[in-house]
Design brief:
By secondary structure, the protein is of the alpha+beta class. It has 3 domains: 51 residues, no CATH class; 158 residues, Fervidobacterium nodosum Rt17-B1 like (Heat Shock Protein 90); 87 residues, Actin, Chain A, domain 4 (Alpha-Beta Complex), CATH 3.90.640.20. Helices cover 33% and strands 29% of the residues. Strands 3-4-5-6-7-8-9 form a 7-stranded mixed β-sheet. The longest helix is centred in the N-terminal third of the chain and has 32 residues.
Length: 301
């Protein structure tokens, strides 16, 4: 009989402990559910309230160092603004330029862009179209990101991932036969674990004809893609581990159209966006094909 009474006492005590634990749990998680207010997100690990606009890890200096770190491998010495480059053409013998910047850090928007603006001096018309071409790329990208952010905030206004960080950097490769070759990399951070998106922009601009040159206008043979692919593959195997190379649609002459390439006085640089020939961890992949291998394919205007 005593055993039964004792059991009932223990049972009552146990039930009380369970009820108390449930109450504590409800109160604790109830407090957490009310912390996402005023576009602020609670970091439960550190108990800090962090404004959404602080979740922006990208800036132009960091992006430039990260995406252009292969200069030594490719034999590229980045030419800084304020320098003078000889063009090799009488109408516009010296190329000069300044670095234009667009900087904005307000709320959920972080923009840090650097791009070249070429100075025409007496021959301003020779670079006016080039400047306009570059400006259009930059402004179009900014407008696209603003619309993306509007949609993200509308769908999830309190999420720390509803931010946009846009940065861009550039490097001037040089001038070959009056053709200005430069590369820009536009980097978007749109939240999430895979939020960084690097997009290469390669420009080969002929000052003589005042226009952008495509691969078909630079390479001689009609089957240049078929002839150059073995050289590209060879350099990719030197540049990457064999296991890292993705053999996809790009590896056929019909699909690989040299959309991204740069001209140097001593060769050609083939540029591949992320995920095209390797994993995302490899980022933008570039390979250099020296003149002894490539010069027979080039017919520069």
């Amino acid at each position: 009989m005593k055993f039964i009474n004792k059991f009932k006492v223990n049972e009552t005590l146990l039930a009380g402990i369970i009820v108390f634990s449930l109450l504590v749990t409800v109160i604790y998680f109830g407090n957490l559910s009310g912390t996402e207010t005023n576009n602020e997100v609670t970091d439960v690990n550190s108990d800090l309230w962090i404004p959404a606009s602080k979740y922006i890890p990208v800036d132009a200096i960091y992006a430039a160092e990260r995406v252009f770190r292969d200069g030594a491998v490719l034999g590229i010495t980045t030419v800084l603004s304020g320098k003078r480059l000889e063009t090799g053409i009488v109408q516009y013998p010296i190329l000069t330029w300044e670095t234009y910047k667009i900087v904005e850090n307000k709320g959920r928007v972080n923009i840090n862009i650097e791009y070249p603006h070429f100075l025409g001096n007496k021959n301003r018309d020779k670079v006016a179209k080039l400047n306009q071409y570059i400006e259009t790329i930059i402004q179009t990208t900014i407008e696209k990101d603003r619309k993306t952010l509007e949609s993200m905030v509308r769908d999830d206004p309190d999420s720390f991932e509803s931010v946009i960080a846009l940065s861009a950097g550039y490097r001037l490769i040089g001038v070959t036969n009056g053709i200005v070759s430069l590369e820009m990399v536009i980097t978007d951070f749109t939240g999430g674990g895979l939020g960084n998106h690097d997009e290469p922009v390669t420009i080969n601009w002929d000052i003589k004809s005042n226009k952008l040159l495509t691969a078909d206008q630079v390479f001689c043979s009609k089957n240049y893609t078929e002839l150059l692919l073995p050289l590209v593959r060879k350099q990719l195997f030197r540049r990457l581990y064999p296991d890292d190379i993705l053999v996809g649609d790009w590896a056929t002459p019909e699909r690989y159209g040299w959309e991204y390439f740069l001209l140097k006085k001593d060769g050609i640089i083939a540029v591949f966006p992320p995920y095209e020939v390797s994993s995302g961890a490899s980022g933008i992949v570039r390979v250099f094909i020296p003149n002894p291998s490539a010069q027979n394919f080039l017919c520069l205007p």
